[in-house]
Specification:
The complex is a heterodimer of chains A (112) and B (117). With 112 residues, chain A is mainly β. Chain A contains no helices and 11 strands. In chain A, the strands form 2 sheets. In chain A, strands 2, 4, 5, 9, 10 and 11 form a 6-stranded mixed beta sheet that branches. In chain A, strands 1-3-8-7-6 form a 5-stranded antiparallel beta sheet, with no helix packed on it. In chain A, a hairpin with a 5-residue loop joins strand 9 and strand 10. Chain A starts with a strand and ends with a strand. The mean pLDDT of chain A is 95. With 117 residues, chain B is mainly beta. The relative contact order of chain B is 0.33. The chains are: A mainly beta (112), B mainly beta (117). Chains A and B meet through strand 4, strand 5, strand 9 and strand 10 of A and strand 4, strand 5, strand 9 and strand 10 of B.
């Protein structure tokens, strides 16, 4: 059974710092990996999608990497801003049955 | 496209009542997912459909839960009878199917916050 783990569960950093969020998964038979952002009381907003054949994707200050063989992904946020405060979730889409399985997220707080 | 549309946004009901949550996926998407989110368990996959057919409902917690997708543009999740422990936020998501060579990015609705008292 696929398990997705996100470390740390919560993180507080001063504004302007670069930071890395981690995601690991137990079954490397995935089709893609997707990072989402969720603001309190809101839905999930897609940030980046990495296909299994890709190593990384970039969007603005965000860079996500994927090492499928080791079951790991990282989300790098450059020059963090208070507006980046949210919960970040990663999800893998399994090759075997097409399910999308989520980690429990990292709650990020950027201190002004 | 307006994105994935869920209704209602909020639902408060009494224990024992029937609750129906609705979802309209993005046009052209043939995969639809229902999730439940709680603080304790995070996002749990309840059921998903491919081309309107339920593929895996192993996440449905009990027989009180049922889901249908009568056509490509509408799905419902029903709870009958509802219980206080069903209180959670229920999300619907859609994407193109994995077999589609195009982008398979998943998009989420805003969710339905269900409170059973």
């Amino acid at each position: 059974k696929q398990e997705v783990t996100q470390i740390p569960a919560a993180l507080s950093v001063p504004e302007g710092e670069n930071l890395v969020l981690n995601c690991s998964f137990t079954d490397s038979a995935i089709y893609n990996l997707q990072w989402f952002r969720q603001d309190p009381g809101k839905g999930l907003t897609s940030l980046l999608l990495i296909q299994s054949s890709q190593r990384e994707q970039t969007s603005g200050r965000l860079n996500a990497s994927l090492d499928k063989s080791s079951g790991r992904s990282t989300l790098y946020i450059a020059a963090s801003q208070p507006g980046d405060s949210a919960t970040y979730l990663c999800a893998v889409r399994e090759t075997r049955d097409d399910k999308i399985i989520f980690g429990k997220g990292t709650r990020l707080h950027i201190l002004p | 496209d307006a994105g994935v549309i869920q209704s209602p946004r909020h639902e408060v009901t009494e224990m024992g009542q029937e609750v129906t949550l609705r979802c309209k996926p993005i046009s052209g998407h043939n995969s639809l997912f229902w999730y439940r989110q709680t603080m304790m368990r995070g996002l749990e996959l309840l059921i998903y459909f491919n081309n309107n057919v339920p593929i895996d409902d192993s996440g449905m917690p009990e027989d009180r839960f049922s889901a249908k997708m009568p056509n490509a543009s509408f799905s419902t999740l029903k709870i009958q009878p509802s219980e206080p422990r069903d209180s959670a936020v229920y999300f619907c998501a859609s994407s193109r199917g994995r077999g589609n060579a195009m982008n398979t990015e998943a998009f989420f609705g805003q969710g339905t916050r269900l409170t059973v008292v």
